[in-house]
Design brief:
Order of helices and strands of chain B: HHHHHHHHHHHH
Radius of gyration of chain B: 23 Å
Distance between the termini of chain A: 42 Å
Helix content of chain B: over 70%
Radius of gyration of chain A: 23 Å
Mean pLDDT of chain A: 81
Strand content of chain B: under 5%
Low-confidence stretches of chain A: 316-359
CATH superfamily of the largest domain in chain A: P-loop containing nucleotide triphosphate hydrolases
Number of strands of chain B: 0
Number of domains of chain A: 2
Distance between the termini of chain B: 33 Å
Oligomer: heterodimer
Order of helices and strands of chain A: EEEHEEHEHHHEHEHEEHEHEEHEHHH
Structural class of chain A: alpha/beta
Chain lengths: 359, 286
């Protein structure tokens, strides 16, 4: 899509629930034809932001436009341009799949026969034909999710909002959902999805905004996001009595990065550009006579990304309690500095600020 | 999830040659619904409500059990005391029970709407370009069936235990129609309650507080002359009394009295006030 108009353009989006500011000045720009991911832990304001853009919640501050149409001023027009699939299936439990789709089609102005044909087409497309005449109450979680998505596509809206589309799904169903979402984009749709999983954002999204406590703390491609914490992490558990200072020196020399130490438990996390470097580090350690109890290499988790971006874990409340080790004095400064960077890049934190051990 | 197909990929949207064109979609949007669309959407919502009724027949308990039970019970308990016999009491009682049943049915409209609104599907209704009044008005249209059953069954029970309405078939039909119209109009009050309260339970509680005084402090079950003056004054202005008197005139004499006019006027006022209020609070809160 080369059209100039952004699919979604939000400036300073704000939502207050009583005294609590759920969304605090979030800017978003979603280009036409892309999958844009909004990543964040529970309570970060993802769903609230999405519901405001979808006209389901009034916007308390800031501006939002969908394909150039003002969301607050012309909600009726917006509703003709979007489809939304929420965390909880918004279909009628007491009716069958066909009846649901027929009803939503009719409510959007399709004639009865057209609504029936559309229902049939969508049920086939989402592999629900066998269950077409069963009440939704008998559907599995994955089937519900698919029907819910089907219901959002009846009028082929150009913008689809997906609120945590795979939360609670088993891995196989999740993979199918991902395929379906990719399919939407090949059709020309734009997708704005929220997720708690870095993995999911990585798989699907071309660009990601990270929300934390109602604020956007970073934005960029999944690669940029992961690069801000290293592409993989080598997790070492040193044997009791091993020389930790020596280990640190070796890592610094071989990997060229400061490891994150938890002296009490002998744990050491080493950010790596590529997983291949893990072997070099291990060989270096053996050469220096540092013995190791256990070793693992992992992709950076959302938790690590969060720690790097905000100085606290994705599970905010708990992590703050033990956040003393890295001496970050609150998140607002961090968030603020990231935001001032504007879009496109992550502010890179010195790696020694990444606190230890996230199991 | 074992029913899933081998490949969803073959079936996914990419299989179709269709391409979404955002610019054309934006150009095709319209700023609001036409009245015809609003009516159409309301009827779709009414159809949904009827479907639910058919699948949950226990929803009909209030409109079937209450007329049967209350008519027989009140007739035999109060008949002798109030009118000197069951047969003499029936022409007074039946229109009273009709009014009472219709009012209780209204309450059910509000409670069920509230329950319904808590379900996920209302999120979708909100996200569709449909008239905000349709999800409220639809179930109310479907509820016409319930008022019809309630009023019809009450008359039928009366006839079985010896009521002979002198207004004839037309008079009784007129009375039923009046009751149905009133029920539909008053239901807007309870629908409004449904949109402002926190739960279905609180709708029920608040509705009871409105309903009991309205039905019992009326001429539904006793002649007004037997009441103390201050109470009689209230009973005379109580809209339920107008409904009861209007229904009595239609069923017992076959005449369309001034009471019918007052009842219809009250209905009009109620709808004019509470329909916009309901739509507004539905739009704001949910």
């Amino acid at each position: 899509m080369t059209t100039a108009t952004a699919a979604v353009e939000a400036i300073g989006l704000r939502k207050d629930f009583g005294g609590f500011r759920a969304v605090d000045g979030v800017d978003l720009e979603v280009r036409q034809g892309e999958i844009f991911g909004v990543l964040g832990p529970n309570g970060a304001g993802k769903t609230t932001a999405l519901r405001m853009l979808a006209t389901l919640l009034p916007i308390d501050g800031g501006q939002a436009r969908v394909f150039g149409v003002d969301v607050a001023r012309e909600p009726h027009r917006i509703r003709q341009l979007i489809g939304i699939t929420g965390q909880y299936a918004s279909v009628d439990e007491d009716m069958t799949a066909t009846e649901n789709l027929w009803m939503f089609g009719r409510l959007q102005g399709l004639r009865s026969a057209d609504a029936r044909a559309t229902a049939r087409r969508l049920l086939a497309q989402f592999d629900l034909e066998a269950a077409a005449d069963r009440p939704i109450a008998q559907f599995s979680g994955g089937m519900r999710r698919r029907l819910d998505l089907a219901a959002s596509l009846i009028t082929r809206p150009p913008l689809i909002f997906l609120d945590e589309p795979t939360t609670g799904l088993d891995p196989r169903t999740r993979g199918q959902m991902w395929d379906t979402i990719r399919g939407l984009v090949t059709e020309g749709c734009t997708v704005l999805l929220t997720t708690q999983y870095l993995d999911e954002a990585d798989q699907l999204a071309g660009r990601i905004a990270v929300l934390d406590r109602g604020r956007k703390v970073a934005e960029g491609t999944p690669e940029q996001l992961k690069a801000s914490v290293g592409n993989s992490t080598l997790q070492l558990h040193l044997a009791p009595g091993a020389d930790q200072e020596q280990a640190r020196q070796v890592v610094l020399r071989v990997a060229g990065a400061e490891p994150v130490l938890t002296p009490e438990s002998g744990r050491m996390n080493v950010p790596l550009d590529t997983a291949d470097r893990a072997a070099d580090v291990l060989i270096g350690l053996r050469g220096a006579g540092v013995s190791i109890a256990s070793v693992s290499v992992a992709q950076p988790s959302l938790d690590e990304v969060f720690l790097a971006l905000t100085g606290h874990g994705a599970d905010a409340g708990e992590d703050d309690a033990r956040g003393g080790t890295h001496g970050t004095d609150g998140t607002d400064g961090t968030a603020g500095s990231n935001r001032s960077n504007g879009t496109g890049t992550f502010s890179s934190h010195p790696t020694d600020q990444i606190p230890q051990e996230i199991q | 999830m074992n029913t899933a197909s081998p490949t969803l990929a073959a079936a996914h949207p990419a299989a179709t040659a269709y391409r979404v064109d955002p610019a054309a979609a934006v150009a095709a949007t319209r700023p609001r619904n036409t009245p015809a669309e609003t009516v159409g959407q309301t009827l779709v919502m009414a159809r949904r409500a009827l479907k639910k009724m058919r699948r949950n027949p226990e929803q009909f308990f209030d409109v079937t059990v209450q007329p049967l039970l209350f008519t027989a019970m009140f007739a035999y308990i109060f008949g002798g005391a109030i009118a000197g016999g069951v047969k003499n009491y029936l022409p007074v009682l039946i229109p009273g029970i009709v009014a009472q049943t219709v009012l209780t049915t209204c309450m059910a409209t509000g409670v069920q709407l509230r329950e319904d609104m808590e379900k996920g599907v209302f999120d979708r209704f909100k996200s569709l370009p449909m008239a905000r009044i349709a999800p409220l008005a639809g179930p109310m249209v479907a509820d016409l069936v319930r008022y019809l059953i309630a009023a019809g069954l009450t008359f039928l029970t009366g006839v079985v235990i010896g009521y002979r309405p002198h207004g004839g078939v037309l008079g009784v039909l007129g009375a039923v129609l009046l009751a149905v119209i009133t029920g539909w109009s008053l239901a807007w009050i309870f629908t409004w309650l449904g949109t402002i309260t926190k739960s279905a339970k609180s709708v029920q509680g608040m509705s009871m507080m409105i309903l009991f005084p309205l039905t019992f402090l009326s001429n539904a079950f006793v002649p007004v002359q037997t009441l103390p003056g201050w109470l009689a004054d209230f009973v005379k202005v109580n809209p339920v009394s107008h409904l009861v008197s209007g229904t009595r005139a239609l069923a017992n004499q076959g005449t369309v009295g001034a009471e019918v006019g007052w009842t219809l006027l009250a209905c009009l006022v109620v709808v004019a006030v509470f329909a916009p209020l309901s739509t507004r609070s539905y739009r704001r809160h949910l």
